[in-house]
UniProtKB/TrEMBL annotation:
Domain of life of the native organism: Bacteria
Similarity-based family: Belongs to the trehalose phosphatase family.
Reactions it catalyzes: alpha,alpha-trehalose 6-phosphate + H2O = alpha,alpha-trehalose + phosphate
Keyword line: Hydrolase, Magnesium, Metal-binding
The protein's name in its UniProt record: Trehalose 6-phosphate phosphatase
InterPro entries: HAD-like_sf, HAD-SF_hydro_IIB, HAD_sf, OTSB-like, Trehalose_PPase
Length: 272
């Protein structure tokens, strides 16, 4: 799509039911805006460290952050450290990393503490999965505090399938009760089982939020959509089955929706 067509798509009016839902949501007293990062705020790229939120999405997030009783959280599969780097947002953005395992809320000293058994299991996982990544072309391993992501984005379909098969077989032969998640060109292994849905429930309680907006694009975001309640709004970015109430084609349109939510909420604040 060329830039003019893309601009026309993004500036196209949002569907009326979505606009109505955003207007309603903008009126609640305490609002949580929870956002997945890759594929939602940031277009997908080959190197995870190069991913950045679209400028329009970042601008909308900053507008939301400036509003009273409005908190923004990033809820990502990335390790917290990686999320902090690529997101580059102010410290009052709440962060959830590793699909819910890591949290950085308002206390910057909060740290994930794995017990000895978990640490040993991470070591075993590293040994097994490194061997898989080292033995198959264009497959690489991303390290996270409680596990690993086996990336196959640049591998052939055949090598990607092979990497998944061998990694599953070898990891499960060594360790039981692993949490295994398949995402976009990635297979993730963790020694803890927390989900993005649990993270949403935790954030809702932590903030005493009256309603939640959640946007996400991948399979693990479905846990978050599943945790939404009747008065919340879920927005799926891109294709694939979803529990979300609304869908847009991708990050450009997510940015448009966030800007609309900011505009409605700014209007309501001025009316109060
Ligand atoms: O929950 P998210 O914020 O969407 O994070 C999910 C995974 O994102 C990253 O991988 C994905 O995005 C990369 C950059 O666009 C892409 O190269 C890769 O193919 C995707 O799987 C991240 O590296 C993972 O750790 C996250 O779990």
């Amino acid at each position: 799509m060329d830039r003019r067509t893309a601009a026309a798509v993004v500036n196209a009016p949002l569907p009326e039911p979505l606009v109505g839902a955003l207007r309603e949501l903008a009126r609640v007293r305490r609002l949580l805006v929870a956002l997945d990062f890759d594929g939602t705020l940031a277009p997908e790229v080959d190197s995870p460290e190069k991913a950045r939120a679209l400028p329009e999405a970042r601008a909308a997030v900053l507008r939301l952050l400036a509003l009273p009783n409005t908190r923004v959280a990033l809820v990502s599969g990335r390790a917290l450290r990686s999320l902090v780097e690529v997101a580059d947002l102010p410290d009052d953005v709440l962060l959830v990393g590793s699909h819910g395992i890591e949290l950085r809320l308002d206390d910057p000293h909060d740290r994930l503490a794995l017990d000895t058994v978990e640490l040993e299991r991470v070591d075993v996982l590293q040994e097994v999965l490194s061997q898989v990544a080292d033995s198959i072309d264009d497959v690489w391993l991303e390290s996270k505090p409680a596990g690993f992501a086996l990336h196959t984005r640049l591998a052939t379909d055949e090598n990607s399938r092979l990497a998944h098969l061998v990694a599953l077989r070898e990891a499960q032969a060594e360790l039981d009760d692993l949490t295994i998640r398949e995402g976009k060109n990635v297979l993730e292994f963790a020694v803890r089982s927390t989900t993005k849905g649990e993270a949403i429930e935790h954030l809702r309680r932590y903030l005493a939020a009256d309603a939640v907006f959640y946007a996400g694009d991948d399979v693990t975001d479905e846990d978050a959509f599943d945790a939404l309640q009747a008065h919340d709004v879920g927005l799926k970015s891109g294709d694939g089955p979803t529990l979300a109430g609304f869908r847009v084609p991708g990050p450009d349109e997510v940015a448009h929706v966030l800007a609309a939510l900011a505009t409605f909420r700014e209007g309501d604040v001025h009316e109060q």
